[in-house]
């Protein structure tokens, strides 16, 4: 059976794991939108960066000559070195269109070849070529969806003659999401470990150790070794348990002192040797020690509380259903040995039976007039019912 400390720790760690998993799941959905936004921002920045590089490296205006695209004196059509260089700098796919047709690109088709001669999608052509606007967003690029940026290329007279494009694949978005989730998972794991260690320390110091001290004190009381009160520093509930335990110790010590005083007084009045001889003679002669002889004889021979051959015990009147004569005899013998007010729990522990079973037999003896009961009230908790002979 797991200890209380382990149960609390497992419950707490389980809650943390569930909370962390839920947080990471929500974070994943949130990061998906953030990754798309980050890709769009990158596309806008890369469009501006590539435009500045082209203008700086290749001065002059855009123009169309004999069906080819030029930037100043430089021919751009089939100039893959230019788009490869820009792609290396940005990490994007790069394409330059003449009209709506790709004339230089790093985009590959399904065969792995550069998609020279393929056309831009109709909605992009409408927005960029005809409306003259910049487009940033998701678009279908040769059968694959990417976060893209398109800007119109204008000739010296202001006419739009082409398009410049950069594209960011979904792998970039997945990388952002993956890195974020890994970071949060590591942080969550570290936080869980820290919380587990703090919880372990708290349980050990505030609950486990104080309870252990009380258990040790209880065992010392049972063996007569406890000489002083226990002291624990813990929560309010544990403190109340400490107070109740110390009150019990005080009562036991007080009762023990009274018993020792009575025993010493009797032993001083009667010689030990004659006392022992008297007791032995009475045991051999099957005499029953009476209350008057206890004051004059050795106190270890108790007066029987009742005779085991009484009618209520020997079966002449019969026992109630469910009660056993053998079990009743065992409980009676234990009561005759203890001869003091005693609770159900103490009898159950002494005869090794359940409290429910013992309570039935004690209540039966009370009904027969053999025992009487009274409630003992403490400073905390419920009153305890004690059984004692008449």
From TrEMBL:
One Pfam family, short name: HTH_64
Chief localization: membrane
GO-annotated cellular components: plasma membrane
Swiss-Prot/TrEMBL keywords: Cell membrane, Membrane, Transmembrane, Transmembrane helix
GO MF: phosphorelay response regulator activity
Membrane topology designation: Multi-pass membrane protein
Keyword Phosphoprotein on entry: no
Record flagged with keyword rRNA processing: no
PROSITE patterns associated with the record: HAMP (PS50885)
Location of the protein in the cell: Cell membrane
InterPro entries the record matches: 2C-system_Tx_regulators (IPR051271), DpiA-like_HTH (IPR048714), HAMP_dom (IPR003660), sCache_3 (IPR033463), Sensor-like_sf (IPR029151), WH-like_DNA-bd_sf (IPR036388), WH_DNA-bd_sf (IPR036390)
Listed transmembrane segments: 6-30, 181-203
Domain spans labelled HAMP: 205-257
Protein name: HAMP domain-containing protein
């Amino acid at each position: 059976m797991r200890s209380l400390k382990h149960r609390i720790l497992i419950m707490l760690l389980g809650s943390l794991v569930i909370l962390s998993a839920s947080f990471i799941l929500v974070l994943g959905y949130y990061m998906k939108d953030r990754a798309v936004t980050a890709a769009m921002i990158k596309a806008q920045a890369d469009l501006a960066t590539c435009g500045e590089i082209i203008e700086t490296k290749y001065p002059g205006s855009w123009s169309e000559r004999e069906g080819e695209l030029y930037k100043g004196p430089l021919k751009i059509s089939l100039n893959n070195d230019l788009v490869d260089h820009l792609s290396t700098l940005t990490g994007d796919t790069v394409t330059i269109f003449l009209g709506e047709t790709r004339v230089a690109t790093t985009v590959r088709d399904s065969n792995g070849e550069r998609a020279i001669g393929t056309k831009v999608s109709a909605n992009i052509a409408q927005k960029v070529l005809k409306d003259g606007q910049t487009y940033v967003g998701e678009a279908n690029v040769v059968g694959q969806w990417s976060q893209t940026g398109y800007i119109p290329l204008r000739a010296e007279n202001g006419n739009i003659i082409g398009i410049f494009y950069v594209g960011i694949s979904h792998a970039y978005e997945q990388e952002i999401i993956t890195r974020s989730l890994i970071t949060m998972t590591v942080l969550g794991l570290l936080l869980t470990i820290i919380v587990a260690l703090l919880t372990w320390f708290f349980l050990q110091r505030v609950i486990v150790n104080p309870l252990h001290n009380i258990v040790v004190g209880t065992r010392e009381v049972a063996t007569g070794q406890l000489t002083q009160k226990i002291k624990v520093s813990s929560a309010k509930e544990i403190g109340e348990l400490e107070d109740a335990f110390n009150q019990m110790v005080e009562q036991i010590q007080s009762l023990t002192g009274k018993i020792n005083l009575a025993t010493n007084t009797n032993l001083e009045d009667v010689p030990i040797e004659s006392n022992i001889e008297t007791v032995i003679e009475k045991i051999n002669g099957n005499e029953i020690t009476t209350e008057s002889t206890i004051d004059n004889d050795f106190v270890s021979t108790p007066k029987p509380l009742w005779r085991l051959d009484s009618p209520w015990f020997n079966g002449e009147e019969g026992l109630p259903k469910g009660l056993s004569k053998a079990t009743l005899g065992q409980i009676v013998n234990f009561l005759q040995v203890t001869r003091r007010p005693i609770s159900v729990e103490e009898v159950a522990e002494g005869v090794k039976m359940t409290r429910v079973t013992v309570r039935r037999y004690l209540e039966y003896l009370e009904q027969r007039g053999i025992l009487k009961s009274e409630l003992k009230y403490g400073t905390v908790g419920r009153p305890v019912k004690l059984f004692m002979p008449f």
